[in-house]
Amino acid sequence: MSRNPSKNANLALVALGANLPSSAGAPADTIRFALNKLLELPKVVTTGVSRFWITPAHPAGSGPDYVNAAVSLFCDLSPQRLLDALHAIEAECGRRREGARWQARGLDLDLLAYGDLVLPDVAVQDRWRGLPPAEQALHAPPELILPHPRMQDRGFVLAPLAEVAPNWRHPRLGLSVAQMLAALPEAALAGMRPVTA
Fold first, then answer.
1. CB neighbourhood size of 42 (10 A)
2. What is the torsional sign of CA 139, 140, 141, 147?
3. Which keywords does the record carry (predicted)?
4. Which residues, at least 6 apart from 196, have a Cβ–Cβ distance to it below 8 Å?
5. Quick count: other Cβ atoms within 10 Å of Cβ 20?
6. pLDDT tens, position by position, 38-88
7. Would you call 114 exposed, middle or buried from its count of C-beta atoms within 10 A (0-12, 13-18, 19+)?
8. What whole-number distance in Å separates Cα of residue 52 and Cα of residue 54?
9. Residues 40, 1: contact at Cβ < 8 Å?
10. Angle subtended by helix axes 79-92 and 27-40, to nearest 10
11. Which value, to the nearest 10 degrees, does the dihedral of the CA atoms of residues 144, 147, 152, 158 take?
């Protein structure tokens, strides 16, 4: 089977994060492992990889600093099949998707966006995006929501993503990644720094 995606392939955006050792090693090693696994996926072509960023754990005090990155890719897989592939990579590194939200973890791969798709529909995406902060840690959607409902609020997502897809535009907010990053309050970027070596 050809590894080249078709002309109808969609731009997919993925966030990577780790702040605990995994079966692949330390957090930065785990991110490298996950990136290599993404390169091996059929019908997927990676088009950009950000620098690694050191980011304080979210919420504050919930664990060691994270290593975060972002990747853009063209993909012929459906969004759900791509998400399943991301979850399989997480599982290969020892992650089990259970327990409290926003806890320390060996690997977290989030499908942020898939072209300009809004899933499962506009009303559901808008409802999850508008969830009050106090409820965000308590509730997880039972289905794939695209774009990721928290992406516009998170410096640890937007700073790496701006390196690989600054012009991607949120289909509900009408803002590019670069504009969403510029609109963040300073607190959303506090303590973040790119890894230079």
1. 11
2. positive
3. ATP-binding, Folate biosynthesis, Kinase, Nucleotide-binding, Signal, Transferase
4. 51
5. 17
6. 999 998 999 999 999 999 987 777 789 999 999 999 999 999 999 999 999
7. buried
8. 7
9. no
10. 140
11. 100
Q: What single letter denotes the amino acid at residue 23?
A: S
Task: Show contacts of 31-35: CB within 8 Å, 24+ apart.
Answer: 31/67, 31/69, 31/107, 33/93, 34/89, 34/90, 34/93, 34/107, 34/109, 35/69, 35/71
CA distance 53 to 189: 11
3-class SS at 49?
strand
Q: Give the gyration radius of the chain's Cα atoms.
A: 16
What does the block give as tokens for 143? 């289905």
pLDDT tens, the chain, 197 aa long: 345 666 556 999 999 999 999 999 999 999 999 999 999 999 899 999 999 999 998 777 778 999 999 999 999 999 999 999 999 999 999 867 665 545 667 899 999 999 999 999 999 999 999 998 778 767 778 899 999 999 999 999 999 999 999 999 999 999 999 999 999 999 999 999 999 75
Q: Are 31 and 42 in contact (CB under 8 A)?
A: no
Q: Which domains does the chain have, with CATH numbers?
A: 10-194 (3.30.70.560)
